[in-house]
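User: Reviewer 2 asked us to show a designed sequence for the structure in our supplementary figure. I'm pasting the structure tokens here. Could you produce the per-position amino acids so we can include them in the response letter?
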């Protein structure tokens, strides 16, 4: 279990006292020990000097009895004196106090010169440590011998130990007394901190009505003798007046706490009521919770208003029939309306927070990502019309993408809005077709009325003439030319009528490979007569689509005939079928090795009556009819001259038709 604040303070306090006591103990121990040893050494030298002076006369008289008495008396001076003996000037023992005989090794253990006061050596006997003091015995500069005195060191250490025990007891008592006093002083602090902690816990749980600061004996209205009931500080026992805004005291300065506190510090209320740091902290905490309570109340009110505005804005957006979405700078959808969800057939929760790759197929997602990045990088809006597949057929969408900029003109996201213009497109196409039909219909009707009848008469009489003239004559050839050109004019009139009249479509599900194969079966023999070979490669899987099979066969016939006319003879035509950019798109490619199409003519070949063929070789309506049928099936046709890589041999042109299958359309692949 971890220590609390009180435990840490007590532990730290006692640790400091203990460390301080140990420092004092070791320092006193060292000083006392050194002092006692020094005193012991000085005592040994003093005893030696005193005894050496008394030994002069007995040594001169060689009075061994007197010398024995003196050394014995010296040993009896204290328990710390171990031995005493006298050596002559040659180092031989004269007298000693050893009961078991004189240890010879002591003679050379400590030496002293004649000009020294004395010499001290610490000797280890194995059982005891002895300070050996050597003092010369001198008379009139003549050395008579050496006096040696041995003192126990352990006796001095015992004295030191007794002193240190007293020191330790004193230190322990001092620590206990200081600890008790410290705990008494710490109790108010820890109680305040505990209360502050409990208040913090309550504040974290949402209770901002906690009271941490202690009650005052006298409050501001008592001190100032104030009776202004409307003042926010009046009868407010838990918050100090210098923390409250809008007080009515004439000495208070209006404004925030940072401005008023300088003035309040000079007020007698502040001087009498302000406490120590702990009390100030508690008062500040109470003021903080009061301020937080007010701020939270304001925030909740603002949040409620914002939620109402957000709900109102979302309701307006959901009521708009156009789909609307908002993306951030990373392409992540952060806001959408109901129309956008319905378009993708997904719930709002499945869209918000996602990116294009999460919502669309790989090809569409990559295309939309490129568009979005370009808008975010350049800041240029995008306006376009998209034809997208849908569950009930292809749709046309008018899409607008607008960058969203911050105050510093930095693009942070984009808004995409769009509407379904499929019906508008259909109306436009119908209007265009109707205008064309009206114009061409009037023209065709005029041609049929003005030209068709004379052409029939000319053709009839010319055929009668052919029956009456000889076949080998010049007249027969001339009349045959008239018949041929008359039939050509009739064909032009028939093409005009076909172009102007849009017959009913017969929509079925069929295999595009079979339709192409049927067309190739009709023209392959005719083309081979001019040494034009047809190469074909069908997709290995059936390419099913929903459309008018006969009209599309007419498209393939027109394109093959154009390729044959461009080659004339000795060439090849390549026909390929396969999957387009998506699984719901079918691609048909027809390329030839003919003369090709001039660059300046490529954009004109689908215009009515435009042709590059010679007089009498074409009406210029074949590709216009082809273009109309493909548009009717919501497809596209593109022409390349020379052909694209992989579909060409030498020169020539290539037509690529892309048709939506109209089957198994995935939902959700519609976006701006």
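Assistant: Here is a per-position design you can include in the supplement:
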């Amino acid at each position: 279990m971890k220590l609390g604040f009180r435990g840490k303070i007590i532990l730290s306090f006692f640790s400091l006292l203990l460390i301080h006591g140990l420092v004092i103990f070791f320092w006193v121990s060292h000083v006392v020990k050194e002092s006692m040893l020094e005193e012991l050494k000085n005592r040994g030298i003093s005893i030696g000097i005193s005894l050496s002076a008394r030994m002069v006369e007995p040594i001169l008289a060689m009075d061994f009895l007197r010398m024995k008495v003196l050394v014995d008396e010296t040993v009896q001076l204290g328990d710390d004196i171990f031995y005493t003996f006298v050596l002559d000037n040659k180092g031989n023992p004269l007298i000693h106090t050893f009961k078991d005989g004189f240890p010879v090794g002591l003679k050379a253990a400590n030496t002293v010169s004649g000009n020294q006061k004395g010499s001290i050596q610490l000797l280890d006997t194995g059982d005891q440590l002895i300070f050996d003091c050597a003092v010369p015995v001198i008379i009139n500069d003549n050395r008579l011998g050496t006096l040696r005195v041995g003192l126990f060191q352990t006796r001095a250490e015992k004295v030191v130990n007794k002193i240190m025990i007293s020191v330790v007891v004193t230190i322990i008592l001092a620590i206990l007394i200081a600890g008790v006093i410290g705990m008494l002083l710490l109790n108010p602090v820890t109680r305040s901190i505990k209360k502050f902690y409990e208040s913090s816990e309550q504040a974290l749980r949402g209770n901002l009505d906690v009271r941490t600061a202690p009650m005052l004996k006298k409050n501001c209205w008592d001190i100032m003798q104030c009776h202004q009931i409307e003042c926010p500080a009046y009868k407010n026992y838990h918050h100090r007046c210098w923390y409250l805004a809008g007080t009515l005291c004439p000495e208070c300065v209006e404004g925030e706490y940072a401005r008023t506190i300088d003035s309040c510090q000079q007020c007698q209320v502040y001087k009498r009521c302000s406490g120590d740091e702990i009390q100030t902290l508690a008062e500040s905490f109470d003021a903080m919770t009061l301020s937080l309570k007010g701020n939270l109340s304001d925030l909740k009110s603002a949040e409620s208003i914002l939620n109402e505005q957000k709900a109102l804005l979302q309701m307006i957006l959901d009521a708009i029939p156009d789909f609307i979405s908002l993306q951030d700078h990373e392409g992540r959808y952060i806001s959408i309306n109901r129309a956008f969800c319905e378009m993708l057939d997904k719930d709002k929760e499945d869209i918000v927070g996602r990116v294009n790759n999460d919502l669309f197929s790989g090809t569409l997602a990559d295309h939309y990502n490129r568009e979005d990045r370009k808008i975010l990088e350049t800041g240029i809006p995008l306006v376009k019309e998209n034809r997208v597949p849908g569950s009930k057929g292809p749709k046309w969408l008018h899409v607008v993408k607008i960058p969203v900029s911050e105050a510093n003109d930095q693009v942070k996201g984009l808004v995409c809005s769009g509407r379904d213009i499929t019906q508008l497109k259909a109306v436009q196409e119908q209007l265009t077709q109707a205008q064309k039909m009206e114009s061409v219909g009037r023209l065709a009707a005029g041609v049929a009325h003005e030209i068709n009848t004379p052409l029939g008469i000319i053709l009839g009489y010319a055929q009668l003439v052919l029956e009456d003239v000889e076949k080998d004559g010049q007249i027969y050839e001339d009349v045959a030319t008239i018949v041929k050109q008359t039939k050509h004019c009739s064909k032009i009139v028939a093409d005009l009528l076909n172009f102007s009249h849009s017959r009913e479509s017969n929509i079925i599900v069929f295999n595009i490979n079979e339709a192409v194969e049927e067309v190739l079966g009709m023209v392959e023999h005719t083309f081979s007569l001019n040494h034009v070979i047809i190469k074909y490669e069908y997709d290995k899987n059936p390419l099913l689509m929903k459309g008018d099979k006969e009209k599309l066969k007419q498209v393939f016939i027109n394109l093959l005939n154009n390729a044959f006319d461009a080659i004339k003879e000795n060439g090849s035509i390549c026909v390929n079928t396969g999957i387009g950019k998506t699984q719901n798109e079918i691609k048909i490619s027809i390329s030839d090795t003919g003369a090709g199409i001039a660059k300046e003519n490529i954009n004109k070949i689908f215009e009515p009556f435009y042709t590059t063929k010679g007089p009498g070789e074409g009406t210029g309506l074949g590709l216009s009819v082809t273009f109309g049928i493909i548009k009717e099936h919501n497809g596209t046709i593109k022409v390349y001259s020379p052909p694209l890589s992989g579909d060409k041999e030498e020169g020539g042109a290539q037509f690529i038709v892309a048709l939506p299958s109209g089957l198994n359309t995935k939902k959700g692949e519609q976006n701006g």
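For the response letter, you might also mention the following. Residues 665-672 have pLDDT under 50 and may be disordered. Residues 425-500 form one domain.
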